[in-house]
Write a structure and sequence with these properties.
This protein is mainly alpha-helical. It is built from 17 helices and 9 strands. It has 3 domains: 152 residues, no CATH class; 59 residues, no CATH class; 73 residues, no CATH class. It has a 3-stranded antiparallel β-sheet with strand order 3-4-5. β8 and β9 form a beta hairpin. This is HNH nuclease domain-containing protein. InterPro entries: DUF222, HNH, HNH_nuc. Belongs to the Rv1128c/1148c/1588c/1702c/1945/3466 family.
Length: 400
């Protein structure tokens, strides 16, 4: 429906349309969860070189990590919750409601329900009926109460099973997230944040508490990295990497969007110069004739300098549909060193551990003259993360 048609609708008509659209989204999410469940059971995602349904959904469906995980979890849980699945497929329950109810299908709670003479499906039926016309917060509270009552006499829960932290990186490199900590773990984090917050309270500070705590978290990271006590990432110390051309770094007239951060995101040349005031500067010549980047046949393993150059160019695993970050990756010889491949930038590629193994077992990668990476299955067909445009013949065939 066009914007003009929408503006022509009355308020009640718009609300009715909104309800219909929410139900349509719910029905589509139910069908997606069911389809992914069946595809996962048939290991269909392995055909595109992906280990899990989540990784395929992220790389090919462009879902966030949280959204992909929810689809897979809901699909598996709904197999044990037929009434909930029916209500979800009818559009009466949202995917978020299903995820809350699905907690009862965890092996621990499923065993407790059975031991007390009930069934997961029956408890799910009650929760589903409750959820249809109650606010999401009410459902969350009810499920929490059910889980607490099921395990009143159980052992103290493992705090590591309760904790989670999810970060979402946006296009500009900023990050938002959500997390949950057990009470003791939360106290430790709050104590550390409060110490950093109280250490940085200048006179006339107008920051909100939320802003102060965010600044304290960054200061905590600064101190940890500066102390050099953080674990190594791929044999190198974790560090804040900023990539910028030498001319932009030196030119005070260069403005925003000139520098790229190692974890993604773009900052201004001024911010890069600020970092450079207290940083180690390295120059990398990204060219096959540079001695630093072209080790020929004299050395098999990539040097730290070559690895850094490959990271600067590839940024992440180059296997189609994979979003594995550079610190998960190995430097792979595109043409194997045993078969005459040189240890050079042109013959190197970043591959995460799983896809490095895949490439050594039938899959292949190639980089075209424009610098784009292509991935091919063992049968020679290319793995595409975007559905190709249909040919004229295909369009005519469909129309017929």
């Amino acid at each position: 429906m066009s914007s003009d048609h929408l503006h022509a609708l009355s308020g009640p008509e718009l609300l009715d349309r909104t309800r219909d659209l929410v139900e349509a989204v719910n029905r589509a999410q139910a069908e997606l969860a069911r389809t992914v469940r069946v595809a996962d059971s048939k290991r269909a995602f392995a055909g595109d070189g992906q280990k899990t349904a989540q990784s395929w959904l992220r790389g090919h469906g462009r879902l966030s990590k949280a959204a992909a995980s929810q689809v897979v979890r809901n699909g598996r849980a709904l197999e044990q919750l037929p009434d909930v699945e029916e209500a979800h497929a009818a559009g009466r329950l949202t995917a978020d409601q299903v995820e809350v109810i699905a907690q009862i299908t965890a092996p621990k709670y499923a065993r407790l329900i059975t031991a007390q003479g009930g069934s997961v499906a029956a408890v799910g039926q009650v929760l589903g009926r409750f959820a249809v016309d109650r606010p999401h917060a009410d459902l969350t509270e009810l499920v929490h109460q059910v889980l607490q009552r099921l395990d009143q006499d159980g052992p103290e829960p493992d705090p590591t099973e309760e904790r989670f932290l999810t970060l979402v990186t946006h296009a500009d490199g900023s990050v938002t997230g959500r997390f949950h900590l057990d009470p003791l773990g939360a106290q430790k984090v709050q104590a550390a944040l409060e110490a950093h917050r109280q250490a940085d309270r200048p006179a006339g500070d107008q920051r909100t508490l939320a802003q102060q705590q965010a600044d304290a978290l960054v200061q905590w990271a600064d101190n940890t990295l500066a102390a050099g006590t953080a674990p190594l990432l791929r044999r190198t110390r974790p560090q804040v990497a900023v990539k910028i051309g030498s001319e932009d770094l030196a030119d005070p007239g260069t403005g925003r969007g000139a520098a790229t951060l190692g974890f993604g995101g773009v900052v201004s040349a001024a911010k890069a110069r600020q970092v450079a005031c207290d940083a180690e500067l390295r120059r990398y010549l990204i060219a096959p004739d540079g001695e630093l980047l072209d080790l020929g046949r004299s050395q098999r393993l990539a040097t730290p300098a070559l690895r850094k150059a490959v990271e600067l160019r590839d940024e992440a695993c180059v296997f189609a549909g994979c979003d594995g970050p550079a610190w998960w990756c190995d430097v792979h010889h595109v043409v194997h060193w045993l078969f005459g491949g040189e240890t050079s930038l042109d013959n190197s590629a970043l591959l995460c551990e799983r896809h490095h193994t895949q490439v050594h077992h039938g899959f292949t990668i190639q980089r075209d003259p424009a610098g784009r990476w292509h991935t091919y299955r063992p049968d020679g067909t290319e793995i595409l993360t975007i559905r190709p445009e249909p040919t004229d013949a295909e369009e005519l065939s469909r129309a017929g």
